[in-house]
Each structure stands twice: as C-alpha cells, then as structure tokens.
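Sample 3 of the quickstart, ligand 5-O-phosphono-beta-D-ribofuranose:
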Amino acid sequence: MATQPIVGIIMGSDSDLPIMQQAADMLTLFNIPFELTIVSAHRTPDRMVEYAKTAHQRGLKVIIAGAGGAAHLPGMVAAITSLPVVGVPIKSSNSVDGWDSILSILQMPGGVPVATVALNGAKNAGILAAQMIGNHDATVSKAMEAYKLQIGNEVLEKADKMQANWPNQFDQQS
Ligand code: RP5
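Result:
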C-alpha cells in the first residue's frame, strides 16, 4: 500500500471529528492512504485557500470536506481545486436543524459541483471516495465489490433470522 495520502479529509472544527472519523474508517477499510485535518472556511480562510490550491500537486485525488451550520468549506474548496470534492453536511452546535448544513453544501451553482452525501453521512463519503479511487486501482475496485457482497449477505442473514420468527409471512429466498 502506498503511504502518500491520496484522499484529503478536512473538517471545519474538531467538533466534526466524531462524524468525519467514519470517512477515515472506510478509507482504512479499503487500505487507502489519507490525510485528515481541520480547515475552517471562516476561521482560517487563508489555510483553506492554501489547502485547496496545493491539494492536487501534493498528490490528492479526492477531497472529503465536512462542515456544519453555515457550511461553506466544501463549496469554497471546490471553487478553488480541480479535484472532486465530496461534501458532508454535519448537524453541529450551530445548525438550526441540519437542513442549513445540507443546503449550504448541496445547492452549488452550475460549474462548481460538490458531491453531497446525507446529513452526517461521512461513511458514504468515504465509500464514494474509495469508489473514485477504485476507477484507477484494481485492488480497491475488487475490495469494493467484496464489500458490496458482504453488506448484501448481512441483509440476507437478517432476513433468514426474521423468516425464522415469522415463517409464513414471506417465503422467497432471494
Ligand atoms: C462549522 O461550525 C464547523 O464545521 C462545525 O460543524 C461548526 C461548529 O464549530 P465549533 O463551534 O464546534 O468549533 O464551521
């Protein structure tokens, strides 16, 4: 496994880490080297610009950016870099109800997309980034196929257990 980070995980505050950690966990599962740090659009704007400007030349292929409330980090990073940006809306202490974070990240103008996952959906952000990497990495792609099979099998096992308790409710085995 290469040790040079190819995915950047950034977040507006350390208070976002319990959610953003889930993206890191998925990248770890797929053996994808990543870096992880705090970059705040509002509190460290120069650091944000520097991070986004240098991300490509530093070898990153995808950026996962999470923020809550007036969540400008993913969109502003996407405005600066040519890399794909996956945005994670976070329900934070300054969120009204989470919709503020979602809409701040989702409703980007034409020309500057952010691939926005669900509220607190950092797990899916990690998987989406891994899928992007898998386009050019057969090992990651195979691991992704195995992961999909595994989560499907987990559902089938649960269905079998449910069937045991409710035997006459559904008899299809697929
Ligand atoms: C956002 O404000 C951060 O991304 C975080 O979700 C939220 C609250 O930040 P803290 O006040 O906890 O540092 O910029």
